[in-house]
What we know:
The longest helix has 24 residues, at 325-348. The two termini are 20 Å apart. 47% of the residues are buried. It contains 15 helices and seven strands. It is an alpha/beta fold. α7 packs parallel to α9 (210-223). A seven-stranded parallel sheet has the order 1-2-3-4-5-6-7. β6, α11 (271-280) and β7 (284-286) form a beta-alpha-beta unit. It has helices at 27-32, 51-60, 72-82, 84-95, 114-121, 131-139, 145-160, 185-200, 210-223, 249-255, 271-280, 291-294, 299-306, 325-348, 354-372, and strands at 13-17, 99-103, 125-130, 165-168, 227-231, 262-266, 284-286.
Amino acid sequence: MAADGSQAGLGLVDHHVHGVLTGEQDQDGIEALLSESSSPGPPGTTAFDSQLGFAVRRWCAPVLDLEPLAPATEYVRRRIELGNAEASRRLLTAARVGTWLVDTGYQSGAVTTVSELAQLSNTPGLEIARLESIAERLAGSGGGAGRFADELTAAVQQAAASTVGFKSIAAYRGGLDFDPARPRPAEVEAAAGRWLQQLESGGPARLEDQVLIRHGIWAALDTGLPLQLHTGYGDTDSRLHRADPALLHDFLLESEHTGAPVMLLHCYPYHRQAGALAALFPHVYMDVGEALNHVGARSAVVLAEALELTPFHKMLYSSDAFGLAELHYLGATGFRRDLAQLTGDLVAGGAWSASDAVRVSEMIAAGNAARVYRLSGP
């Protein structure tokens, strides 16, 4: 165990992550990435005055040659002095993640590609394809409403040859209380006709139609690859009460026969509901993702709550880090530290053996992801 209390050598698969921004960041840009809000804070305040901001100052500062808990202004000055590329390289390599599984569907033009992230971190990366992005690219091909269902299915199947899983942001595009059934071909054709007509009239190329989103989800399930679903905490584009994973209960009943793993991402503050679903359904898995970064010094408590009901072979690690490499670093090192604290307390209290603690830690950190995503190794 390392001096900071973490299991420093514990291998990790980050099964849901994004790239880091490629351009230089000023103080406003850095602070914007420390919050899920789309608006700046009130005048005279700083995003560093949060659990995440304090975690950055405590744990990331030494990686940039600063004292722990260096003032926010000093931290920003040092980061700008180093430059984004060097700061990112230091933080990503210090995270010592074994494999990144990268969602390429969000602001892909502003962040590193899978290969660029892998090169910068000296860690292999694999792609998670976002279903809504596949559909939005396809909409501009001019195939017509009658062919859209087959073309989207074919595009998903083609993507399955080069990706290790799929992601849907249905929670952002209407909520998780969608009709659980596979949509009928006539429904898909009618929905495609409405959407394509909107696009031809100059409407935004943003897929929000629930029928088309469901068609993409079922096409992904048919590939047998893991399907990631955003749940819980997100930005202002999502309605939190409609992102509760408990709303997926009927869909999970409907999809169980496919055998495709369904991965509930982030889940907070509904992590206990997600754990219950993972305990009930054989194809359901969960993580607490970005929540552990955002709750800062309270992260071990959240992880312990998530593991109250979640079978140990159903929990995975992810950071959901985007933009700032600090989030990739904090996610990895904080998760190791929290897992060490949690399992260490259980061993000290006589509830677990030391060998149990090691075995379960390795499962959650990398082994479960390697099994579910069919990786050759973490």
